[in-house]
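User: I'm new to structure prediction. If I give you an amino acid sequence, what do you actually give back? Let's try with this one:
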Amino acid sequence: MATVYPGDYTTLAGEPFALQEYYASCYANGSLTLLFLPISRHSQNILRSPAHSASISIWSDRPAASRPRVSLIGNVTLFPDLSLTPDLARIQACYLAQHPDAWRWLPGPREPHVAYWARFDPHAVYFVGGFGDEHYIGYIPLETYQEALPGGHQGRRVPGRLLVDQQGRSS
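Assistant: Good question. You get back a string of structure tokens that encode the predicted 3D arrangement of the chain. For your 171 residues, that looks like this:
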């Protein structure tokens, strides 16, 4: 995930901040579920951003120049009141299925730090199919991303939910 330090931050105002963060694909439209801990630097930057902006990078296996990857640019919707979190049981089960070790930090009375559920909604999708001129590199229409099947193409898992050929056509 990448965020930006707020403008009034003492030493790094306006600078980007990026670290790998847990997310889970729990929505049919490609939005992502986040476990939002206000103590984290990303969460603090998101809270101070008027649009709650962030970017999340997605890839399969280990990142490498030859492998496809996607950058999702969007905003974060927070659900600070656990009782008002939409589909709470479903997103919690989905998140834990992808990150079983996260049970310690789930929102509720037992967490070591305050935690909320949040949803990341992409509004732009940038795809890098791999290295060189053999792969598509560029923006993908949001609707194409949202309509793609999460399982990938022909049974293969593909980052960012879709496979794009060299001409930029989704399949």
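You can read the tokens as a compact description of the fold. Here is one thing that stands out. Residues 88-98 form the longest helix (11 residues).
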